[in-house]
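Budget justification note: compute hours in this period were largely spent on complex prediction jobs such as the one shown. Inputs:
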Amino acid sequence: MENIMSLSEKPLENTTAQLTALFADRTQRMKASEIRELLKLLAQPDIISFAGGIPDPAYFPREAFAEAMSKALSEQAASVALQYSTSEGYTPLRDWIVGYMARHGVTCTRDNILIAAGSQQALDYLGKIFLDQGDTALVTWPTYMGALGAFNAYEPRYDRIDPQTNRPVEDVLADAKAAGGAVKFAYLSTDFANPTGVTLTEEQRRTVLARADALGCAVIEDAAYQELRYRGEEIKPILALEIEEKGDIDACRTIYLGSFSKTLAPGLRVGWAVAAKPVISQLVLTKQAADLQTATINQIAVSEVAHGVFDSHVAKLREVYGARLQAMLAALERHMPEGIAWTKPDGGMFVWVTLPRDMDGAELLKEALKANVAFVPGGAFYADGSNTNTLRLNFSMSAASKIEEGIARLGQVIRDQM
Ligand SMILES: Cc1ncc(COP(=O)(O)O)c(C=O)c1O
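Corresponding output:
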């Protein structure tokens, strides 16, 4: 028996080793997401987790979706809902998005819109479209780690897009050329960014646009959290500012990414891209090659729910999450020792904490888990893994009493490490 086992195991091991050796070089840059690995640890019952980045399922518009799905599966409708459909996306949903974008100052037609399986898919496609190996992608420091994950497969180098910088554009271009490529795009979150919660002012948005004009690159504006504003006035998207300047979306370099994940439900995987027609046409070709289309029934259900309850539902989320943000900011004020700084966002799902220079977020997490509180260490949000004395706190998933208790525990853990 033993002999048979070892005989059968050996070739399997060799074959597996052979297979993995065949993986393309790009796979070297595909790393397990620290967040996903972490989430596995969070099953402990008493843990208060500020680690996730997800909406509270208690506030999914479940009934509206149940109705929409049932309607989509009715006898007359099912032949459409269960069928293949166009790569561009479900027309009534794109038309709803035309109206939504107009409310945010972006004049476009449905031909400027692609529906994607989440804005994450659009990030992957944009990486695929723009990046040759060694090209430069400009990102903020820190940035959304899922964007780094999407772009990494296309083997870019990263440089910084920083609205406050006075680094000459010529230097950025020269560095990109010396690395063997060109500056292809600047990717950034404009409102309540993941991970910092920070929102760019209108002046900063104009600066980003002016720098992109000077660099001759695209701007990828990630607006995943735009609707989740709890205080202050809306600031126009970069795409809206660019249309004001250039007169027509088809003359613009900004590619806007929207998502229904934070407002309605992430599980349906419906997001969108808005851009000049040549960019959308290329995205459509990319989608045709990759997955043909976003799930028909999901788009129909999202369209139905968006037409019906989007505004009232988002108003509810603003109330609930806004109170949680207040609870977190007040708890931080109460429980954090001297020397700890944090952002004070106007919306979104995250607060970003900066620890003293010599303190490491990942090391702190090990101690925090012993005290049954979790967060995401900040290093993974930097393209170069720097600034590890940071961490991200999520407030959308916890009730105010849990936030108070969790931040009190975290404050104590930090104090013990100082
Ligand atoms: C900034 C940002 N962009 C994009 C995404 C991806 O969202 P979607 O569910 O639309 O793919 C996320 C998800 O967490 C995000 O935080």
